[in-house]
Design brief:
Elements lengths: L1 H14 L8 E7 L16 E9 L5 E2 L7 H9 L3 E6 L4 H8 L3 H17 L4 E4 L7 H24 L7 E6 L3 H4 L4 H4 L5 E4 L32 H11 L7 E6 L1 E5 L17 E4 H8 L5 E4 L4 E5 L7 E3 L3 H14 L3 E5 L12 H9 L11
Parallel strand pairs: 1-2, 1-14, 2-4, 4-5, 5-6, 6-7, 7-8, 8-14
Antiparallel strand pairs: 2-3, 9-10, 9-13, 11-12, 12-13
Helix pairs in contact: 4-5, 10-11
Length: 371
């Protein structure tokens, strides 16, 4: 009863003024690959997260010829799409842990991020700190959110910006790391959370499960937490985050697992045999005789290596994305985000998975940006 009352109270507070919030479709545009702005499927997106604005071990921002990108923000705004700069990547976690230890370095860091946002036409900041892991980093994450929120609001007011800057953050799929995020302290300052509902299996796992299944499989030894539905329920039911502040993650890549069959035990000695493939690469394998199998219980596919080679690939296809989008819409969540745009691009320039999500759960557009 207490948890229900808490959830309702937080929901009412956070949804004030957001009754007409649009369905979000957020695509991550990776600055570290050879990609082009004109290849982004703008019509299927409401927001783009530009990944990553890195931070070195001393807490200083790392920029290059691709980050920041006024060309990206200009192109997005011409199409009614907002762009956030994503803090993350590389050794950024180490830098964030260090810079958030004391007030003066954090204030300087937050000011530099806000200045970069304003100078390059971004519409906000997306924090991808994977992940706070103890009491110190829990406090540091709260402080980072607070300083960025205050700095962004101050800059918006000073510049006469008609829209507030956005501030979002990534969230893990379970309590293992999720317990170190102080939702009571940060939720009122964040516009929404990107729940990383993928990478649920890898070299660190005991068994080869789907890495982004909608529902848990009875055959999965780690089924107590390994599914999209359980991850979203953790943040909404257990942590009292309103559904309109939760965005479901959809991977545009798969994980290659060195086992002969789904759900088989993973040998720690085979860690180096794990790998990742883009959806475009997986589609190419499927066209070369790798049989695809559908798991009706998890609503997710497997790709099996031919000729008894001990390798299976856990991934999302158009059917599983369709199921996730319809489920998310029916459940009342805010929308979907995609990591990463380039991984879903076919040779003809189409984006199969993003288009499947759009067909199942159409998006609306924000009005043109006022610069």
């Amino acid at each position: 009863m207490l948890r229900t009352i808490l959830a309702a109270a937080v929901a009412l507070a956070c949804l004030a003024g957001h009754a007409a919030a649009e369905r979000l479709s957020v695509g991550y545009f990776a600055s570290f690959v050879d990609d082009q702005v004109d290849k982004i499927p703008w019509k299927n997106l409401t927001h783009v997260c530009h990944a990553y604005l890195k931070t070195d071990d001393t807490g200083a921002l790392v920029t290059d010829e691709r980050m920041p990108s006024p060309a990206l923000t200009t192109a997005a705004h011409a199409r009614g799409v907002r762009v956030l700069v994503s803090l993350g990547g590389g050794r950024t976690t180490t830098g964030l842990e260090r810079v958030t230890q004391s007030r003066a370095p954090l204030a300087k860091y937050a000011d530099s991020v806000v200045e970069l946002v304003a100078a390059n036409g971004y519409d906000g900041v997306d924090i991808v700190w994977e992940f706070p892991r103890d009491k110190a980093t829990r406090r540091g994450f709260v402080a980072l959110v607070a300083y960025l929120r205050a700095g962004l609001d101050k800059r918006a007011a000073a510049d006469g910006r008609t829209e507030p800057y956005l501030l979002t953050a990534a969230a893990p799929p379970s309590a293992f790391f999720g317990k170190w995020i102080d939702t009571g302290a940060v939720l009122g300052r964040l516009d929404w959370l990107h729940v990383i509902t993928y990478d649920m299996v890898g070299p660190w796992s005991r068994a080869a499960g789907h890495h982004a299944p909608l529902l848990p499989s009875p055959a999965d030894p780690e089924r107590s937490w390994r599914s999209v539905s359980q991850a979203m329920d953790y943040w909404h039911a257990d942590r009292a985050v309103p559904k309109q502040k939760l965005v479901i993650g959809v991977p545009m890549f798969g994980r290659a697992l060195p086992v002969a069959a789904p759900h088989a035990p993973l040998d720690p000695a085979d860690r180096k045999l794990h790998g990742t493939l883009t959806f475009a690469e997986i589609r190419e394998l499927a066209g070369k005789g790798w049989p695809a199998k559908w798991d009706p219980q998890s609503k997710a596919p497997w790709l099996q290596a031919p000729k008894d080679k001990p390798l299976v690939i856990a991934y999302d296809d158009r059917n599983s994305v369709d199921q996730k989008a319809k489920w998310g819409k029916a459940q009342g969540y805010r929308g979907l985000f995609f990591w990463a745009i380039h991984q879903d691009r076919m040779d003809d320039g189409t984006h199969w998975l993003i288009r499947a999500a759009e067909r199942a759960w159409p998006v609306g557009k924000l009005p043109p940006s006022v610069e």
